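Ticket #4471: structure export looks truncated?
Reporter: QA, pipeline team
Priority: medium

Steps to reproduce: submit the single chain below to the structure queue and open the exported record.
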Amino acid sequence: MSFSELGLSAELLRAVEAQSYNQPTPIQQQAIPPIIAGRDILASAQTGTGKTAGFMLPLLHRWQASPRDKKNTRPYALILTPTRELAAQVAESARDYGTHLNVKTTTIYGGVSIRPQFAALRRGVDVIVATPGRLLDHMQQRTVDLSAIQTVVLDEADRMLDMGFIRDIKRILAALPKRRQTLLFSATFSKEIRALAADFLHDPVEVAATPPNSTVDRVEQIIYPVDKDRKRELLSHRIGSENWRQVLVFTRTKHGADRLARQLGQDGLSATAIHGRKTQNARTRALAEFKAGKVRILVATDVAARGLDIERLPHVVNYELPEVPEDYVHRIGRTARAGEDGQAISLVCVDELKLLGAIERLLKTKLRQEIIPGYEVDPRIKPSQKPSGGNNRPRGGHNKPRNAANRSRSDSGRRRNSNSRGGIKGRSKNNKSGESAR
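Actual output as written to the record:
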């Protein structure tokens, strides 16, 4: 099948050709026609298989075909993402695909000045790509009018509907027209998330281009059993001895990411960290340096597990396994994208065996283990009685559990209080790294 068979406009086909897309991926083949037809969608596919184009191309097609008042400044479509990096990436895709259309796209997220966003909204915008927290700031200040939204997209919908964000999502969706098109896209959907999604969807088409919670075949997944206090030593050894030139390393906490980046630097390996406590400028700069090859290792929390599209990234390392098994799927999905090969390494100590078991049950497979000579596990070490994170601090680096309802919502640092959070019981682990959708 070719893109021309999917019913897209000539302008969009020209943009697709300029991106050197030869033929649509399975998720694009299945999702684009019903979206053009106006149907709601619940779509799942592996990371790196073209989900963004799967919703953005038909969204722009419908925008192009819709009757519009040229003086109307109200946005046509709203795309919600869990992280700033993903918002920026989706907006870039919208501009690439809409290069032959007079479509105006803007991003709305925290960590940067809100004033340029005010100005963009006053000038008028067709497509908004936003994180929930900053969008709520605009809604409260009445600087954005969502009354004409025809299509809303929840990208990485499983994260958007988890316990950390569901109340914000409900407030935003309540402000949209009741008659609208709703599109939910993700690589993973639990039964609970599917049940919750039914509240937002009307007679949806369900698209599953790949089995639920599956990983790309071209990712080689290897487990390295190792004692906890020798993880950093083993990581440096593998990067140096195998001459890995570009490595994305995941930790559970922001403090742990900073510490590991410093230690790798002491080992003579150029490294930088990216996480929610960094300023947005620092995050953008770290990512740009990593993509450009100026930095060999990017150490990240799960803020980088979704939305980072790094061409031909060869290696992803789970320095610490995630506490939510679905996050493993998203982490390793940063490699082997768009048909490339990739390798996902996990350094697993005795404290993480239960986490490994949960991941293998999710994937319905036993991951291959490889013993590195000189780094054999000491059988005398028993699992810690502490949480699997060892001496890591609780979520977000605070001394008591962090309630997502108390997240800072604006650059001024003011906080909104809330008595409760709706959502999926037990999914608050998804926000382990303390990231907020601002």
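Status: closed, not a bug. The export was complete when the record was re-opened. Leaving a note from the reviewer for reference: The chain has 14 helices and 14 strands.
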